[in-house]
Structure prediction request, 138 residues.
Amino acid sequence: MTSMKTQTPVRISPAAELIAAFVSTGPAFGDRAGLARFLRAHRLATEGAIPITLADLDEAIALREGIRAVLENAPEPDPEVLARGQKVLDGLRVTVRLQPGREQLAPAVVDEVRRGLARIAGAWASVLSTGEWRHLRH
Prediction:
């Protein structure tokens, strides 16, 4: 008789769920309308028109590709992909909430797209600090 090992499913946090959704967007995220749909679907932007520039779309894609490169568990992620993603993170303004809660890092920007990206950055910081990113690896 063989013994079967069962793994307990890992329950991931809302931050990890957001990161998982963000990195798995694929071609649906290839245009400004796709980015708007993603932001609305994940409550990162309000309903209605969102002015999204091509530069906003490029930043969102660079951030997604940078996070994806870390999660793909490659021995050596492409340094250019990582640098482009890091540049986006470096340009986002976030603030730390004084009181504990669901979102410790919060956007400190007015622009709706950048506010959405800042929330993704906060989620990424959360999954890095808890080690949850290891459960999201491909």
The two ends are 32 Å apart (CA to CA). The beta strands are 94-96, 105-107. The chain has five helices and two strands.
